[in-house]
Design brief:
There is one protein chain. An eight-stranded mixed beta sheet has the order 11-10-12-9-13-14-8-15, with helices on both faces. Helix content is about 45%, strand content about 10%. Helix 4 crosses helix 11 and helix 28 (about 720-735) crosses helix 29. It contains 55 helices and 33 strands. With about 1500 residues, the protein is α/β, with parallel strands linked by helices. Among the domains are: about 270-430, no CATH class; about 460-585, no CATH class; about 665-870, P-loop containing nucleotide triphosphate hydrolases (Rossmann fold); about 880-1100, P-loop containing nucleotide triphosphate hydrolases (Rossmann fold); about 1110-1165, no CATH class.
Length: about 1500
């Protein structure tokens, strides 16, 4: 009745009511059919067409169909249906077995990645790459990398890759992880396809399988801006009836559709915003002032006209509820962007002004507007139909309409759509009238479609076929209270708001809004179609849609339980709150949990199904490729090739072929020796050889050699063992007609050359026959070899023989190996003995002889399994031994004389002692002046003044004149030889009738040979030599020896962690050898320039073996080159094995320098460093410099660091010298400063008219040290040429041959331009230096520095140019050595700025945390973060390609780069050029 009254009072609403009565029940197909049968026509008599079922109804039908299908028996199913059912069962079984583990693994991986990103970026320093890598260069790197990855795609099965279900579960976990990391779903799909097509091996990074390579792939293939920068915050996501993302990744497998969203899409109402219409199109609406333009009788017409304009602009903006007096204001909700143009706002303001007028009839205006709006909706529907008919297939109605549908039916459809719109309009108006109590009562019943105006305004899905659930009387704690307590336990300031959204309480539905004060995780409720959910980090809104309750209390409890489940289910601690719920709602909780599980399982099945298809598709392609690869093609001739592959065609070493063809006794060799021994020249030399002591032991020595594999010969100096024993073996073997090839090793080049020439002469050969086909004797040293096919006896340096043993065929056709001077215990000799112990077992026919002047014979015999010992006495005349006190007494030398002639040079002594002073009791008989002089005398200094006085006294004193024919002076090194040579040649007493011969192993053979020649009568000679003349060579006419008692030996400095030449006192055995050199031809005289007390009490008996005092880096590399197995095991077999600590230190140093791998195998770089006479870091410096074009700098720096600095620092002018040194400062680098001074000196020396002496004196430079640096550069360059890193032209080779130490004319090393192109580029020099010296890096922290290698505080040496002048932009400094000061503070020396990006590109082991954007080098040593993903992949690619290019260069240094290696090298050079320009 009430409804009828309202129809009378509102006639305008009657047509709408008729439409509503017909169109309401259209939720499901069955409901639609039932309503249509009851009401076939509407009030106007027009048929109402069937509505298209919405997606929610379709979803309800699908499960029914599936249920009916599942109830059928197996024999009733078709083969296709049976296969589908079996596949579904298999998928379900796999999901049940793997889903939990997959989710656990992916969740754990995401948590780890997010944690690493937060922690690592907080600890890392920002790395700026803009100056190094501009945009165009980064794009070029990416293009090259992409092209290379495409060309390198070579499908093939790898061992150890996952297969079957294992692979499927790994891909599934990888997919979930990528989606959780907010990677765009379409990009995830592509990445999974790529990783399945090229499955990687499992790495040790701890990441999921494939994660590392997939992240790299995403960086390479994602367009700019798709992946957020690392420091950008992720956009806050809203979960709105959404699933886990499978709909986006695999849309064809989504089994659960979003009913609410579908309902919204099927709604005939226009959307509330039109994104295609720009806002400024509505800005031109003209609205006049209401008070001055309108009369009272014009209010209604103006109101209707204004609302029509607003409806035309945006139908959704016309909300009658917002303009009714006393209406409920509703919040705009999800899914409907509330965008309003300025024109719309003007119209809305005008409507509000009209409604506020006291003369305006709101009721009449609403009634007339309803009729007007229905007509406008009908017109809009007609326009939309005409538009759809022009765009075939774009609309759902056009696609489902039969092609022959009559035009009348199209008109009816338009009318019906308008009626539906009118129905909704009418319902809005009816729901707002308080007096209409029955209008919504029936609509709220089950099966009746209804929607609150607030729901429509909020964009909520309209409920279809609402189900009323009665939970009975609720007992226990109120669910609202349970939810509130749970929420406040998480956020004390949370606010919960319940709002009724149904128009009646008989089918009550509520909306719950939860507002948080803290960000929360977004939640999803797509598995609950009866609920509409919106979730943001700060708010959660739940609205009941398809289910209602009989009263409001149950409705609030229902929505509270839903919220409790969605928010807290899954949290083991928080979900326990549901136990407090009433029993009925606890049962509903279980239903929700089951629904959620079924939803997840359904999604998982779809995901797994598509992943399996992806994997199967790749497997099929791979199998096809394998089938093609495995095809066997038989060609004519293959049988012949297989038959030809016999042992005859197998390569056999030449010496083995000779052994197989050579008879045991050769008459040819016997005849050869008969002719050779019958020559007059041979007979003449044989007569002289008979006078040597060794000749009398010829038969005994040869017999021992024939009977034993190893023989030890001990003989005093002068017995002729080095020349005679190898010759005896040669003569004996040839006379017997047996083939022989004898190698005699010498520790020095000069010894090998002089001995070879002497033996060749004794064989009766001419002077120039040595090493030719006319001679049986030759020699082989580094850079120089004089041998031929006829050579049977070769004198070679120990290093040459070691290189031979490194080759595959070992010593080849060598029959006898004689090792001379084993008493020196050089590291090469001791290592050779290690090799021989294993070689003798493999070659029992090899004969080995060890020879020495002074040796612990029994120690060697025990080491070599009881080898026999032959002791040959020497032949020397008595020698008078004098000491320092005798020299001072004889010359009257004083400390003042020594100070006046002192040379300003820094001398570093090995172990200064405080007990070296002479005991006064031993000075009995000496003058008081001598005793006073000795009291303050500095024994550690080379006293050139005393040496000069001694020579003069011996030469011109009648008592000593007989000893002055040939004077041999032992000096520590080449710089001292030069210094004394300059003094003697400038002294008038030695200008006439004197010859001064410097003798050093680095001098040319011609210069060395002159020292052995006997001068003509009336001419006396002085030979200046190092310990090379101690035992290695013999100068026959020496009658007087002056021994400084010092020598330079290489030692590994524990404090500095580096190898250096150290000045130290000789041992007593060395002093005896030096003294014996004066007694070869007559009674001799020897002056030892150290006290007798030192000789008797302080000196060691023998010098320390080099293996115990040197860095073992070179030896470790040789162990690996010679394939001796484990390093420690091999070196422990030495005669005096080094300590395990030193071996370990050497291995660690080589790993740091990238010469060894972690598994202690040689890298390509290590193969090359093993060929260089430098420690690993300096070797790496000159190798890299040859690649990047700063070789002249590197050679200069390496020569300086292995000798002495050219800068002097005299005590009387230290500040002035420091100021001058800073004047040469370049690039904030100590090494570049030295190089700058060296270049200036070289320019002065090569410029006519400029004085070298004045330049050096003015700038506190040592010309001797600079000359020594140049000599060492020549030797290092020769090593690089041998290794193939440098190719010299004819001019450069000629210049290199002229660089010989000791030559009076200055010559400089000449290098081709390509090796010097970057010597002036400070950045390239700094980069190469940092790469070479890493991890010797100091990092600036505050005002100090920290050593990244051990994390200890580090200072700078006072002489460093960076000590007080470090620029602010220098963050890292590389250094070569550290020294501990007296205050126990470590100071870094030889510092150079280290570019940060350079270290990222090559130093250490770098780990690229791609998701975090952090690069970690060697653990905690260096950490850098970058801004974006693209920078990360560019740096990672550049590092990998740079290492690849260098590995190629190290493997074949003599070959030019080609192809992709050349392209990447050009990219690196462009990077340096870019930085230089900036």
């Amino acid at each position: 009745m009430a409804g009828g009254k309202k129809k009378k009072t509102k006639p305008a609403a009657n047509p709408a009511r008729g439409v509503a009565t017909v169109s309401l029940p259209k939720a499901t197909k069955s409901t639609v059919e039932h309503v249509k049968d009851a009401n076939s026509t509407d009030a106007s008599g027009t048929d109402t067409p069937n509505a298209v079922p919405i997606s929610a109804s379709a979803d309800e039908i699908k499960p029914q169909a599936k249920s009916a299908e599942g109830q059928r028996e197996l024999h009733e199913l078709s083969p296709e249906e049976l296969e589908a059912q079996l596949e579904a069962s298999e998928l379900q079984l796999f999901v049940e077995q793997s889903a939990a583990k997959v989710r656990k693994d992916s969740t754990r991986q995401v948590s780890r990645l997010e944690t690493d990103k937060r922690v690592l970026r907080g600890q890392a320093d920002f790395l700026s790459v803009k100056e190094w890598l501009p945009e165009e260069l980064m794009l070029q790197v990416l293009d090259y990398a992409l092209a290379e990855s495409i060309s390198d795609q070579a499908p093939g099965k790898k061992q150890g890759l996952p297969v079957g279900d294992d692979l499927l579960s790994k891909v599934w976990a990888l997919r979930n992880c990528l989606l959780d990391l907010d990677i765009p779903p379409q990009r995830v799909n592509e990445a999974l396809g790529w990783v399945v097509s090229k499955p990687p091996m499992q790495d040790n990074s701890g990441l999921l399988w494939g994660m590392s390579v997939v992240l790299d792939w995403l960086c390479m293939h994602s367009p700019a801006g798709e992946l957020l920068n690392y420091d950008d915050e992720k956009p806050k996501t809203t979960a709105q009836d959404s699933g886990t993302g499978s709909e986006e990744l695999f849309p064809e497998t989504s089994e659960i559709n979003n009913s609410a969203a579908s309902s919204t899409q099927d709604s005939p109402l226009p959307r509330t915003s039109d994104a295609s219409v720009p806002e400024d199109e509505h800005d031109d609406v003209q609205v006049s002032d209401i008070e001055s333009d309108l009369e009272p009788d014009e209010l209604l017409s103006t109101y209707l006209r204004t609302r029509a304009r607003l409806y035309d602009l945006n139908p959704a903006a016309d909300d009658t509820q917002q303009r009714r007096k006393g209406a409920r204001n509703t919040k705009p909700t999800q899914g409907v962007p509330q965008t309003t143009s300025s024109g719309q706002r003007k119209l809305q303001q005008r409507l509000q002004q009209i409604e506020s007028d006291v003369l305006f009839d709101q009721r009449e205006a609403d009634a007339q507007w309803l009729e007007t709006r229905i007509e406008l909706a009908r017109q809009a529907a007609e326009r939309r139909r005409l538009q759809l008919s022009q765009d075939a297939g774009s609309g759902q109605q056009l696609a489902t309409r039969p092609p022959d549908k009559p035009k009348a039916q199209e008109t009816n459809e338009t009318s019906d759509e308008a009626e539906r719109i009118g129905l909704q309009i009418l319902m809005e108006s009816e729901g707002q009238e308080d007096a209409d109590l029955l209008g919504g009562m029936f609509n709220a019943l089950p099966g009746v479609q209804e929607a609150a105006s607030g729901d429509i305004a909020n964009g909520a899905a309209q409920p279809s076929d609402v189900t009323v659930r009665d939970f009975g009387r609720l007992t226990g704690m109120n669910p609202k209270r349970v939810l509130e307590e749970a929420c406040k336990a998480r956020d004390t300031q949370v606010k919960l708001t319940y709002k009724m959204v149904s128009p009646t309480t008989y089918a009550s539905r509520h909306s719950l809004s939860i507002n948080w004060s803290k960000d929360q995780e977004a939640i999803a409720g797509s598995f609950l179609p009866a609920l509409h959910l919106k979730s943001t980090p700060r708010s959660t809104t739940l609205t009941m849609i398809q289910e209602a309750t009989p009263d409001t209390a149950q409705s609030e409890a229902y929505v509270a339980t839903m919220a409790l489940f969605l928010i807290f289910a899954g949290s083991p601690k928080e979900e326990k709150a549901h136990l407090k719920l009433p029993p009925a709602l606890r049962n509903m909780w279980d239903e929700l949990a089951q629904a959620k599980q079924e939803h997840l399982t359904g999604e998982d099945r779809g995901i797994v199904k598509d992943l399996r298809k992806l994997i199967e598709q790749h497997s099929k392609e791979e199998d096809e490729d394998d089938d093609n690869d495995n095809e066997v093609v038989f060609k004519a001739g293959s049988r012949h090739r297989s038959q030809a592959a016999s042992g005859i065609s197998t390569p056999v070493p030449q010496w083995e072929l000779e052994n197989t063809r050579r008879p045991e006794i050769s008459q040819e060799l016997m005849d050869l020796w008969a002719r050779k021994s019958s020559t007059p020249s041979y007979q003449k030399m044989l007569f002289a050889r008979m006078n040597l002591p060794m000749f009398h032991f010829r038969a005994a020595a040869l017999e021992a050699i024939d009977r034993h594999q190893v023989t030890i010969l001990v003989s005093e100096t002068g017995s002729g063992k080095s020349t005679q024993l190898p010759a005896f073996i040669l003569e004996h073997e040839l006379s017997q007609g047996r083939h022989c090839k004898i190698y005699c090793t010498e520790p020095r080049r000069i010894s090998a050359i002089s001995l070879a020439r002497r033996v060749s002469e004794e064989m009766g050969e001419h002077k120039n026959d040595l090493g030719t086909m006319r001679s049986l004797v030759g020699y082989s040293i580094r850079l120089e070899s004089h041998t031929s096919a006829q050579t049977r006896l070769v004198y070679a340096t120990t290093g040459i023989v070691l290189r031979m043993l490194e080759n595959a065929d070992g010593l080849g056709d060598i029959t006898h190996l004689v090792i001379d001077e084993v008493h020196e215990r050089s590291i090469d000799t001791d290592f050779l003995l290690i090799l021989l112990r294993s070689l003798l077992l493999r070659k029992p026919e090899l004969k080995v002889v060890l020879m020495s002047a002074t040796v612990d014979a029994h120690k060697f015999s025990n080491y070599l399994d009881g080898a026999p010992i032959i002791d040959v006495p020497g032949r020397t005349f008595p020698v008078q031994a004098r000491f320092l006190e005798d020299a001072i007494e004889l010359t009257g030398h004083t400390n003042d004389d020594a100070s006046a002639a002192v040379v300003d040079d820094e001398v570093e002594f090995a172990e200064p002692d405080a007990t070296g002073k002479t005991d006064n009791k031993q000075l009995t008989g000496y003058s008081k002046r001598t005793i006073n002089t000795l009291t303050k005398y500095d024994e550690y200094r080379i006293d050139y003044s005393l040496i000069t006085k001694l020579i003069q006294r011996v030469a011109y004193d009648a008592d000593y004149h007989q000893f002055s024919k040939a004077i041999l002076i032992f000096l520590p090194g080449i710089s001292e030889i030069r210094q004394l040579n300059d003094i003697l040649t400038s002294t008038p007493a030695f200008r006439d009738h004197w010859r001064v011969h410097p003798l050093h192993s680095s001098f040319s053979s011609e210069d060395q040979q002159s020292a052995f020649e006997i001068p003509p009568p009336g001419i006396r000679k002085i030979v200046l030599a190092t310990n090379i003349a101690e035992t290695g060579i013999t100068i026959p006419d020496v009658t007087c020896v002056i021994d400084t008692g010092k020598h330079k030996e290489m030692r590994f400095d524990e404090k500095r962690q580096m190898s250096r030449l150290i000045l130290s006192f000789i041992a007593r055995a060395n002093a005896k050898q030096r003294r014996g050199r004066a007694g070869r031809v007559q009674e001799g005289l020897c002056f030892h320039l150290f006290t007798k007390h030192r000789h008797d009490e302080l000196m060691a008996d023998n010098q320390t073996p080099e293996m115990l005092r040197l860095s073992l880096q070179d030896l470790v590399m040789r162990v690996k080159v010679c394939k001796l197995g484990g390093i420690e095991q091999a070196l422990s077999a030495a005669l005096d094995p080094p300590s395990t600590r030193n071996i370990r230190r050497a291995i660690d140093a080589l790993i740091e320098v990238d010469a060894l791998t972690v598994s202690e195998e040689l890298t390509p770089l290590g193969q090359q460093l093993a060929k260089l006479p430098l420690d690993a870091q300096l070797g790496k410096l000159i190798v890299l410099a040859s690649v990047f074009g700063c070789l002249d700098f590197a050679l200069t720096a390496a020569a300086t660091l292995t000798s002495k600095s050219p800068f002097l620092s005299p005590m009387h002018a230290k500040k002035q010298a420091d100021t001058v040194r800073l004047g040469f400062k370049r690039g904030d680098s100590d090494l570049l400063t030295v190089y700058n001074a060296y270049c200036t000196w070289r320019k002065v020396c090569t410029t006519p008219g400029m004085s070298e002496y004045q330049f050096c004196n003015k700038n506190f430079l040592s010309s001797q040290n600079l000359a020594n640096i140049e000599d060492l550069k020549g030797q290092l360059l020769s090593s690089l040429v041998d290794a193939g890193f440098v190719q010299l032209g004819p001019n450069e080779r000629s210049a290199l041959s002229k660089v010989r130490p000791g030559s009076r004319q200055r010559h400089f090393v000449a290098l081709p331009e390509k090796y010097c192109r970057a010597d002036d580029d400070d950045l390239v020099v700094q980069t190469v230096t940092a790469w070479s010296f890493y991890p010797k890096i100091g990092k600036q922290e505050g005002k100090g520095w920290r050593n990244i290698a051990n994390n200890q505080t580090l200072g700078l040496h006072p002489t460093s140019v960076n000590k007080a002048h470090t620029t602010s932009d220098i963050k890292l400094l590389s250094y070569y050595s550290i020294m501990q000061s007296s205050s126990r503070f470590t100071n870094a020396q030889e510092t150079t700025p280290a570019p940060e990006l350079a270290l990222v590109l090559l130093a250490g082991d770098a780990v690229f945390h791609m998701y975090a954007g952090v690069i970690v080098i060697d653990g905690n040593r260096l950490r850098y973060k970058v801004r974006d993903w693209r920078t990360m992949i560019v740096l990672k690619t550049l590092r990998a390609k740079l290492k690849e290019v260098l590995a190629r260069l190290f493997k074949a240094p003599s070959k030019e780069l080609t192809g992709k290696h050349q392209l990447w090298m050009e990219v690196v050079e462009k990077m340096f050029e870019r930085q230089k320009k900036s």
